[in-house]
Each structure stands twice: as C-alpha cells, then as structure tokens.
Amino acid sequence: MGAIEVPVLIVGGGGCGLSASVFLSDQGVDHLLVERHPDTSRVPKAHYLNQRTMEIFRQHGVADDVLAEAAPLEKFGKVRWQTTLAGDGPLDRRLIHEMDAFGGGALRETYAAAGPVLPAKLPQMWLEPILRRHAEDRNPGRILFHHELTSFSDEGDHVLAEVRDLETGEITTVKAQYLLGADGGRTVGAEVGIEMQGPPGLVNTTTVYFSADLSEWWEEGTLITHFLSPEDPDLSSNLIEMGPRWGKECEQWGLHFAPGPAGRWNNENVVPRIRELLRIPDLEVTVHKVTDWIVHAHLADRYRVGRVLIAGDAAHRQPPAVGLGLNTGIQDAHNLAWKLAAVLGGRASDSLIDSYEAERRPVGRENVDWAVSAAVHHQAVIDAIGAGHNIPAGRRKQRLEAYFDPSPLGDTVRARALEIFHTHRGGCQSLDMEVGFHYEDGALVPDGSEPPARVPMRNEHRPTSRPGHRLPHAWITAGDRRLSTLDLTGRCDFTLITGPEGTPWCEAAARVAEKFSVPIATVRIGAGCEYADAEGGWEAVRGITDAGALLVRPDQHVAWRSTGAGQDAEQTLAQVFAAVLDR
Asked: Which helix (H) or strand (E) covers residue 377, if one does?
C-alpha cells in the first residue's frame, strides 16, 4: 500500500472534475484526480457550451482547442420543428417552425456584444479528451483514470481516503486537505449525508447514439431538430448532431425517443425503429450505445460538509433544456478553485470556502427551476399545435393538416402558433441565464445598490459592475492590441480597475497587496491610461467615475466597487480584502 499527501483530492474525471483540475493547476494548487472509468466519456452527453463557459475556457487557455473541434455558430444556431426527416407523404418533411437560438442568426450581434467569445457546440465525448490533455499537461502524473475511491473519512483537519488501481488492485492511501466530489453524486455526497432534494424522477428517456449518413435529408445549421410525427406520438423524437464533423458531413447522431419504459430498446431492436422514426427504410445504421436515463430536478441540500465539497451533477441535476447542466458544473469549479487556492496559500481563512455554497447553490436552484420551466413549456408549445404526446393518432393528422392549410383559416392557425413558438425564446435565447447569474451573498462587499431588473424571459442581458456580478465585457485597446475587459483579469490575481484619476487606488492596492500577501494587478482605462476606451463601450458599462475603482476576483466577478474617489484608499481596500477573504 502506497501513500500520497496532496492539498486537494478530486473524485470524478468528467467535464466538471477535469475543469476543476485545470483551474486548480492554474492557481498553483497541487492535487490528485481519480476517475473510475478507464477513459473519458464514450457517449456524447452534454453538447452545448454556453457563452460564460467559453469565457472561462478562454481565461484558462482552453478555448482555442475547443473551438478547433467544435461546431461553429452558423452550424448550430437554430432550433427546428418539422414533421419527419424523410418520406414522400403529403405531411412528410414539412417544416413547422424554426427559430434562431443560442446566439445564431439574428441573435449573433447581441451575443457578440455581451462577451469576447461566442457559444460553441462540442459534445462531452469530444470535450473531455481536450480537458484531460490540459489537466495532464498542467498536473503530470496526478490525473489517474481507472482508479476508484473505495473509502474516505473526514478527520477534522484533513480527509483520509483509499484509492484502488482497477488494473492492478493496488490500494493507495491519500491524505488531502479537501475532497471535491465531482462524481455525479454516485459516492461522495451521500457518504457525508448530503441529500438531493426534489421530486422523484420526472420521466424516463431513451437516447440512442449511432452513426449514419443523413446528408441527403439533413437541414444543417440546427442545434436540435424536433420531429413531430403526424401519425403516432411514439414516432416523435429529436435528433442532434454529435460530430466529429458538422452539418451535412456529420457522421454521428443522438436520437432521443419519446418517453417510455426503460429497457424497451437495445442495440438490435432499435435499428428498425430508427429507420421508422426517420422514414428511411434502407438506412445503414451503426449503433454505438443505447442508454435509458431519468430526467431529474434535484438540488443538493448542502454543497459542503466539513472538508468535503461537491460540484456539478453531484450538486444539481436538471432537464437538458437550455443546456445548463454541464455549464453550471464547470462554473461551480471556476468559483471554487480560487477560493481553495487562497485558503491553502494562507491568504484566507477556511470560512472563505463557505462562500462557495452561499454563491453557487442559489445559482443551482435557479438553473434547475429554469430548466424544468423551459422543458414543461416546450411540451405546451407542441401541444398547442396538435403534435404533443397526448394528442391521439387520429387527431394529430387533422391538426397538422389544419396547420399547413393554405387557406385564410390556415394563416390564422399559423399566426397563433407563431406567437406561442415565440415564447420558446426563454428556452433557446436566454442569454441572461448564460452570463447574467450573480451572487448576492458571499466573498464580496455589497454597495447597497439594487440589481438591474431581469427580463422575465431572460433573453436580454443588462451588464452591470455591481458587486457579485460578472465584470462587464467591453472592447479596449493597448497600442495596436484589442482586448476584452475580461482579459484584464488574471487566473489567480485580484484585479483593480480604475480610470484616469484612479492613481490613489493603484498606489493603495500595492501597499495592501504586500500587507495581505495577495497578488493584485492594477489597470487603468481611459484617456492617457495604458488601456484606451476607444469605442466607448467601457464607459457605458463601468458604473464608476474616472476616480472610481472596481475590485475583480480571479473568477471575473466583481468583489467591490467605489463609484468615485475614497477618503482613505488604503484603509478602504484593507477593509475590503479583510471582508472578502474573511481575514
């Protein structure tokens, strides 16, 4: 039996756990990651990387590798509803509706104004190898796949765990200051008494992952295509490109069946069903995997017990609508990494880690609820046009014929449906759910201001520099370089942003950095400063005067702001850091 001592033990090598490893390495935190599977995911799982996640990957030098393999926005920026993929009947291959989604089409300008990088589409089976490569490069020898956590205990001042090499059977004892469970909730959370709260499983869903050449029939440019059968609700499904190439060149697909009992389909009997669903009787199909999974709407009652923390699916599970699951998990890890680094580096007390739950659990609650609401509403949308699962076979055809009727009455049916479809923007155009989440309590100093009102459908984002919010994006210049304000934030430094009259803040920051042993980068934006606001975007969103200051955390959220000059800049900043770091 061997023994290892590390500051952090990560259990789980999926998207959340691997991201946590990358972020901790960039914070200079030694750690060990163990994953029971021999390799990264073999099934697509989550496939949409939202704008905030891509910003985080950009900060940590991962975005370029993701974008090199991901579908570009023009290849996935729509959502479609149509009757069938193929077939030659009068109601086959009829487009019911399509709308711009997730930054595509007419939304692109709005999304581009909100951040320095756009969303991307890359299923988890292609994303995880990229994350694993980055994790191994930054933490060589400490990313252990095919290793299983067999037991652990919180000893008060450390965690003691046993890890088994599933190839050799060798047991290693691991002593860690903190254990992070990113294992999907399989082991860690339940072991320390964390409960997942929420209703029983909402519905069973079957997904088949397969290869086929659909180029003759596929309408490229869609994130997801919903097929609403005019004959049989059990023939309704949705189809998603899974790469590794995109559009008409796509080779692999994910097909989600209508809800039904688990175990209906297997690798053999599902092939005729795929052909029937897609109306292509002679389609050559290679089935890779058939999975049954339960749609949940669960949130952990706690994110921390002693020295044990949870993140990702171990902390929250929601319907796939809006694509918030994996993104929320990666953002959990981003929030936690700098706090662990500050505590382990002696710059903050252990209680700083309590702010992880205080900040992230409300976001988890909102995202679970939003995903449930969007999923329920989508069902209402398709019910309204007569193609929901509760519409019997005889009436489905009648209702869809009325929808496509070229008469004036058909115009009215389509106009009514269009208004209902427009409400789906809360599911596929919810930019503010991607970048507008914020923290009210935690490692920040409130300034007494109220948050900007959020648009009910979350399809508009209103940037603000209010403490707890993500630093607003604006393009600035330094010589011939064009940067985002988000590029000013370091992976492990705090950043003080001021204007042309903010020199006292910068001088005070240097003294406070030495006093607290905390790295603080100072930057000034404006006329005569090292960074120019040539396009005026920063002035429009900064929320401070030329003499004011913003303190930004390593996770790019604002910790504190002063709209103008302070009476005693050094004392003020010292008090701010004492509060943020709980010193």
From this structure: helix 354-384
DSSP-derived pairing of the beta strands 203-211 and 222-227: unpaired
Give me the residue label for tokens 């330094």: 478
Task: State residue 1's pLDDT score.
Answer: 60
Going by pLDDT thresholds of 50, 70 and 90, the confidence category of residue 142 is very high
73, 103 contact by CB (below 8 A): yes
Please state, in angstroms and rounded to a whole number, the distance separating the CA atoms of residues 445 and 575.
10
Query: How many whole angstroms separate alpha carbon 569 and alpha carbon 548?
Result: 10
Query: Which H/E stretch holds residue 298?
Result: strand 298-300
Residue 35's nearest CA partner among 13, 10, 4 is 13
Determine contact, residues 561/549, Cβ cutoff 8 Å: yes
Domains of the chain: 2-68+123-197+297-356 (3.50.50.60), 71-121+203-295 (3.30.9), 371-432 (no CATH), 440-580 (3.40.30.120)
Q: Can you give the pLDDT at residue 198?
A: 94
pLDDT at 202 over 80: no
**What contacts 188, CB < 8 A, 6 or more positions away?**
11, 149, 152, 179, 181, 308, 310, 314
Cα distance between residue 137 and residue 41, in whole Å: 19
Give the Cα separation of 362 and 368 in Å (integer). 10
Q: Reply yes or no on whether the pLDDT at 566 is more than 90.
A: no
